[in-house]
Amino acid sequence: MKQAMKAIIAAEAAKRPFAEPTDIVKLIYQSVFGNAHMINDEKVAFGRLKKEAETLAPRDDICHCESLGASVRINLSADGKVLSDGPLRLLARLFCLSAKRFPSGYESADEDKQQEFLDALDIAAGMASEGTLPFSAGEFSDYISKYREMGFPAVSHSDRYREAYR
Fold it and tell me: Rg of the Cα trace of the chain?
């Protein structure tokens, strides 16, 4: 698990050098807990996906699907096009079906999943200390201290990340 998670985090840092601590935590959260913390209603999921897709421009520098280990991240704007309604409806369905495979977040996860998440955060902290992430170990440590106090909730991408990679 350690090497696989390290590879996932390293790939994210290489592809997205403007990532901040919250963006790496979001990646880890999605890898361990999937998308179950989001929506399990297909119509609502489609509405959110459609709304997001409408804000995007076609991109050639990313692919539609990125492995996160036990789950995947789907980019709505990739390979030179933004997904249309048909694929978005299918994605909403898959989104809801896959949500059933994962705990809805840290608090509802069993001890093994919680430990997997904490171990992945430790891996990221080590990578920040090694200088392989686009922020310092101190920045990551400060973020994790506050994040821990909040109870390890699902997080959103940073503004910087959204601006750079939308």
Answer: 16
Q: Domain boundaries in the chain?
A: 1-34+103-166, 36-101
**Burial group, residue 12, by CB count within 10 angstroms (0-12, 13-18, 19+):** buried
* The pairing of beta strand 72-74 with beta strand 65-67: antiparallel
pLDDT in tens, 3-48: 999 999 999 999 999 999 999 999 999 999 887 656 778 999 899 8
**Cα separations (Å) of 7 from 10, 73, 106, 124?**
5, 15, 22, 11
What is the residue type of 89?
R
Distance of CA 62 to the CA centre of its chain: 15
Task: Say if residues 156 and 46 touch (Cβ distance below 8 Å).
Answer: no
Rounded Cα gap, residues 152 and 118, in angstroms: 10
Token pair for 158: 């940073």
